[in-house]
Amino acid sequence: MTRDNYQNEVNEGQSDSELRLRKTRKAHHIDLAVQYNEQSQTDAWKDIRFVHHSLPELNEQDIDLTTRVADHTWSVPLYINAMTGGIDEAKVINQNLAEVARKHGLAIAVGSQSAALADTKVVDTYRIVREIMQDGLVLANVSGAVPANEAFRAVEMIQADYLQLHLNFPQEIVMPEGDRNFKGVRANIIEILNDSPVPVIVKEVGFGMSMELYAELAAAGVKVIDVSGRGGTNFAWIESRRRKDQRSVFEDWGQTTPISLLEAQRFMNSIEFLASGGIRTALDMAKALALGAHAVGVAGAVLRVFYKGGKQAVSDTIGTWLHDLRSVMLALGAQSVDDLRTMPIVVTGDSQDWAGARGINIEMLASRSRHG
Ligand SMILES: Cc1cc2nc3c(=O)[nH]c(=O)nc-3n(C[C@H](O)[C@H](O)[C@H](O)COP(=O)(O)O)c2cc1C
Question: Subunit notes for this chain (predicted)?
Answer without folding.
Answer: Homooctamer. Dimer of tetramers.
